[in-house]
Amino acid sequence: MSGQTAAKAMVAATARLRAAGVPEPARDARLLLAHAARIEASRVTLIAPEDLAPEIAERYDQLISLRAVRVPVSHLVGERDFYGRRFKVSGEVLDPRPETETLIEAALSAPFDRVLDLGVGSGAILVTLLGERPSATGLGVDLSEAACLQASANAVLHRVGARADIRRSDWFEAVEGRFDLIVSNPPYIALSEMDTLAPEVREHEPELALTDGGDGLGAYRHIAAGAPDYLLPGGRLLVEIGPTQARAVSNLFQAAGLSGLRVIPDLDGRDRVVAAHLPR
Prior knowledge:
Elements: H1 6-19, H2 25-37, H3 44-47, H4 54-68, H5 73-77, E1 79-82, E2 85-88, H6 101-108, E3 114-118, H7 124-132, E4 137-142, H8 145-157, E5 164-168, E6 179-184, H9 199-204, H10 207-210, H11 218-230, E7 231-240, H12 246-255, E8 259-265, E9 271-277
Parallel strand pairs: 3-4, 3-6, 4-5, 6-7
Antiparallel strand pairs: 1-2, 7-9, 8-9
Helix pairs in contact: 1-2, 1-4, 2-4, 6-7, 11-12
């Protein structure tokens, strides 16, 4: 790609990505050029007529080669935007996704002082909630030590580290006390559905964060069994779900003695969050 203007390099990169079956090739070519040139994506237009320096061209070529074999853009640039904040991510944690902002909106629709995030991952949910509620404190737990480190780093990055306790825990194992809000975006993909996922997800995100290795409802069984013992009376439980799981998850929560069951759709109109609370 050396000896080319940035614009021509981007056109060639877009063609390579399109040929490789990458879903949004022009957008990715632009983001990766910005990363290679170490500039904001909004400034790519400004360098378009200029020749690319050889070291930038080489870095860009490497990034495009990796993207062509479906390494996610977020892993190549090391971060992902979520609810107006930029989170550090890696192959050790699930990428924060726009759909999960539905859960954030639901959580922020009522007051809370103490929040528990089950399966904290990158920390995107917990850190966002603490960032939006400066008086709240929270506990985030995850079975993955690497995820706990990533979540702690993001908590520090967004200046909520003093209010965020991150612990390694198998669900409620290391959890103490009661909370007025419990949230979770657990692994909900059935093992039988794993082959249908995009290569970016299937091959580059942690399997532990995607599937329970069974019918996709295993995590909700754990959450339903434990949540009543860790919620304050009137405390809320909010979980992200797969678009076909609303009824099954609602039934599990109802059987556990939770009430006020509600299914909240995402912006595409798909069932995305199940909400419930512990009776007062």
